[in-house]
Design goal:
The complex is a heterodimer of chains A (about 300) and B (about 450). Chain A is of the alpha/beta class and about 300 residues long. Chain A is about 50% helix and about 15% strand. In chain A, the strands form 3 sheets. Chain A has a 5-stranded parallel sheet, sandwiched between helices. Chain A has a two-stranded antiparallel ribbon with strand order 3-4. In chain A, a hairpin with a 3-residue loop joins strand 6 and strand 7. The longest helix of chain A is centred in the last third of the chain and has 16 residues. Chain B is an alpha/beta fold. In chain B, about 40% of the residues lie in helices and about 10% in strands. Chain B contains 17 helices and 9 strands. In chain B, the strands form 2 sheets. A 6-stranded mixed sheet of chain B has the order 6-5-4-7-8-9, with helices on both faces. In chain B, strands 1-3-2 form a 3-stranded antiparallel sheet. In chain B, helix 2 runs antiparallel to helix 3, helix 11 packs across helix 17 and helix 14 crosses helix 15. The longest helix of chain B has 14 residues. Chain B is globular and about 90 Å long. Chain B starts with a helix and ends with a helix. The chains are: A alpha/beta (about 300), B alpha/beta (about 450). At the A-B interface, helix 2, helix 10, strand 9 and helix 15 of A face helix 2, helix 3 and helix 14 of B.
């Protein structure tokens, strides 16, 4: 893997230039993952920018981003490969006459079977394989960035399977054989910390916990992403958001929501966070009616 | 560099961060790439490779800071240059010889003192959401399945009086109030017998299945109306459902005794580990699975069991393998046994943490009196938690007549519970356990 010229400082600079406030921990983890060819596991609450890091990492390398979104019940056929039955059937229909001709020379059933056995393997070749994200990432000629998103949502069985793929970067397909990675993909796994991932998976990755940002970092993010917001408004927004996160809510707002809210406030021309403005715009920050009411009932605490 | 790193990993292990040899190799390779010049990068590289859980992060920082002394305290080397990690090496040398590292890493509680509350004591705001009725249309989806009697706070069911009359029998001894440890010890003698009885009953219970062995006894009964001609051939199978179980247990002063006995009995049937988690709480949930497992097996982890029993915690007589339940509780960090119990905050914190039950096949057991000290019950949190569960049992270590009285928030939690069991004595706990075993 070529990692010439990649340094933590360069990563930070590039991310910063592309609108992402990159901490030293993020840049060091990406740098080490690059030079040591290991996956990175990013864990943290929703909305702190884990997926965004993967997207930017792909752009940094000008590589394709292959995304595998995990969910409960995800299995190999959805993640790795599937046989295209439709295509196989279509080809079988179209080639029926040809097969008939081929077999016309066969004297008995046994020889027909032998002849057929030599031909039928063609239907189970890579032409009829539907590559799902994992296989695509492995067989791609150019190294891709493989994002295994929200791996905590998948089942333990799938986690074990993933472990196997990630340890050797190779996949065995019974009908075709073993497919080895042409170029090792850069792998980023994200987890929202809703389920405890296995030790085995954690051990194979560099682990980075990304929490909600500090006041200063979040202020930098808002200033960068919402240039229209005045310095005092940006400060008020961030102070409010940080206070709201400490309240007992169903869903604490992530960075993306704070940025959306700041954009909304700029759009309505707000300069202060009075009750009327909050009632109109808080929907961008809080995505739950109960949370909305809880925060509105005690505005003074957060302002 | 390598010997210092190995010693650092050793120090981490002593404090409970189990870094594997493979991870140590990763750390060495990572450090090679970032170099020791930039202290923060050096720290990041070690953290990324050696700590794989959020819980270990704070501990890592403390061990790192005391192991690799900051540059200000570092000595000048021969060339007169400051060396960040050079100081660390010397610090590491000291660590090897004695207590230099251990002492500042995790302050041990003074004898007899309560386990010190860490900084997050103040992390959650004290003020709570003002409105008590968080979810106006509180769903009553489970209420139909709930025995109505459970809701009657002033009922005087027969079981209560029966238990009172048979107070001499250990399994009916009231656990509502904490017992002296001598009485606990006497009660503990009844536990193996109860476990055996439960095991026998569980083994007798056969499940009807589509496939499996032919169930001869049932076939006779089912075909009696057909003159004994076997039109129907029932089959039986020992079906092993692999449910996950989450035991959410109150370990506050009033409920610790019942909890200790229950965990002891339950561990005879459920292998504590990934599929069965034990979460203890007073005012916040703490995963104690491995500590309870060690307690049951009599293999106390030195780290976990090092602090002495606190005098105020009941459970000294509950010793499945030589260690009292009180010692177990007193040794668990983050568990503030002196706090007033707070169910609302516990459920809310559980909902927000990754300990919460996840997966469709989870059976949740709550053991506690739901006395939430007038704190907000936050019943919607329990609702959200139980939506992810297949079955929810609540064991109440209180006589039914007292349910819902005073500061008990039980009526608010009941809509989200499938079965409530009165578990004020050992036989009640056994009944609750049997209910659970029928569902896993």
């Amino acid at each position: 893997m070529a990692h010439d010229g990649v340094t933590p400082e360069r990563i930070e600079e590039w991310f910063d230039h592309n609108g992402f406030v990159c901490t030293g921990q993020v840049s060091t983890s990406l740098y080490l993952a690059e030079v040591l060819s290991k996956p990175v596991l990013l864990e943290g609450p929703p909305g702190v920018g884990k997926t965004e890091i993967a997207k930017l990492w792909a752009r940094f390398h000008a590589a394709e981003l292959v995304r595998l979104q995990c969910y409960e019940g995800l299995d190999e056929s959805r993640a790795l490969y599937e046989w295209s039955y439709g295509k196989q059937m279509l080809y079988a229909q179209l080639l029926r006459e040809k097969v008939g001709e081929l077999l016309s020379g066969a004297g008995d059933l046994g020889s027909a079977m032998t002849m057929l056995r030599g031909q039928a393997d063609g239907f189970f070749s890579e032409d009829f394989l539907l590559a799902r994200p994992l296989l695509r990432a492995i067989t791609s000629r150019e190294p891709v960035v493989l994002l295994v998103d929200e791996v905590d949502r998948s089942d333990e069985e799938f986690e074990a399977f993933l472990l196997e793929v990630l340890s050797d970067y190779q996949v065995s397909i019974p009908e075709v054989g073993t497919l080895r990675a042409v170029s090792t993909p850069r792998v980023i796994l994200t987890s929202n910390d809703t389920r405890d991932l296995s030790d085995a998976l954690r051990r194979r990755c560099f682990f980075l916990y990304i929490d909600y940002p500090s006041f200063e970092d979040e202020l930098r993010i808002v200033e960068k992403r919402v240039p229209g917001a005045s310095a005092s408004l940006a400060e008020r927004i961030v102070r409010f958001a940080q206070s709201v996160r400490r309240a007992e809510l169903r869903k604490a707002p992530g960075i993306a929501e704070v940025v959306d809210w700041a954009l909304a406030l700029v759009a309505v021309g707000a300069e202060s966070l009075d009750r009327g403005t909050l009632e109109r715009t808080l929907g961008a920050l809080l995505k739950n009616r109960e949370d909305f009411e809880t925060v509105l009932a005690d505005i003074s605490r957060h302002r | 560099m390598i010997p210092a790193l190995a010693r650092f990993v050793e120090a981490l292990r002593r404090e409970g961060i189990d870094a594997s040899p493979a991870e140590t190799v990763d750390a060495a390779r990572a450090v090679e790439h970032v170099g020791p010049e930039n202290r923060e990068r050096f720290r990041d590289a070690l953290r990324l490779s050696l700590v794989k859980r959020r819980e270990g992060l704070a501990l890592f920082e403390r061990v790192f800071d005391s192991f690799f002394a900051p540059p200000e305290r570092g000595h000048r080397d021969r060339k007169g240059e400051r060396s960040t990690t050079g100081a660390g090496m010397r610090s590491a040398g000291r660590a090897e010889s004695g207590r230099a590292v251990e002492a500042p890493v995790r302050p041990r509680p003074a004898p007899g003192a309560r386990p010190r509350r860490p900084a997050e004591k103040h992390a959650l705001p004290v003020a709570r959401p003002p409105d008590i009725e968080r979810s106006p249309g509180a769903p009553t989806r489970r209420i139909g399945r709930l025995r109505e009697a459970a809701l009657a706070p002033h009922g005087a069911p027969s079981e209560v009086s029966r238990a009172g009359g048979a107070a001499e029998r250990p399994e009916h001894r009231d656990l509502t109030r904490p017992l002296p440890s001598s009485e606990e010890r006497a009660l503990a003698e009844a536990v193996p017998g109860l476990v055996d009885e439960l095991r026998l009953r569980a083994s007798r219970r056969a499940r009807r299945a589509r496939r499996g062995r032919i169930w001869a006894r049932r076939a006779f009964r089912d075909n009696l109306s057909r003159g004994g001609v076997p039109f129907v051939l029932p089959r039986r199978a020992t079906r092993l459902r692999r449910s996950r179980v989450v035991l959410l247990v109150d370990v506050s002063f009033s409920a610790a005794g019942a909890t200790g006995f229950f965990l002891w009995m339950a561990s005879a049937f459920l292998a504590l580990g990934r599929r069965t988690r034990v979460i203890a709480f007073v005012d916040r949930p703490v995963d104690v699975t491995s500590a309870v497992d060690a307690w049951i097996r009599g293999r106390p982890e030195p780290r976990v069991m090092r602090s002495a029993a606190s005098a105020r915690v009941p459970g000294a007589g509950i010793r499945p393998a030589g260690v009292g339940f009180d010692a177990l509780l007193a040794s668990v960090t983050h568990l503030n046994l002196a706090a007033p119990s707070d169910y609302g905050r516990t459920f809310h914190a559980l909902l927000r943490s990754r300990m919460r039950p996840a997966g469709r096949d989870t059976v949740l057991v709550v053991l506690g009196d739901a006395r939430t000290n007038r704190f907000e019950p936050l019943a919607w949190s329990l609702d959200e938690i139980t939506r992810r569960c297949r079955f929810v049992v609540w064991l109440v270590p209180e006589p039914r007549a007292r349910w819902g009285t005073g500061d008990s928030a039980l009526p608010e939690y009941l809509p989200f519970i499938d079965t409530v069991v009165e578990a004020r004595d050992l036989s009640g706990l056994a009944r609750g356990l049997e209910t659970l075993l029928r569902r896993v």
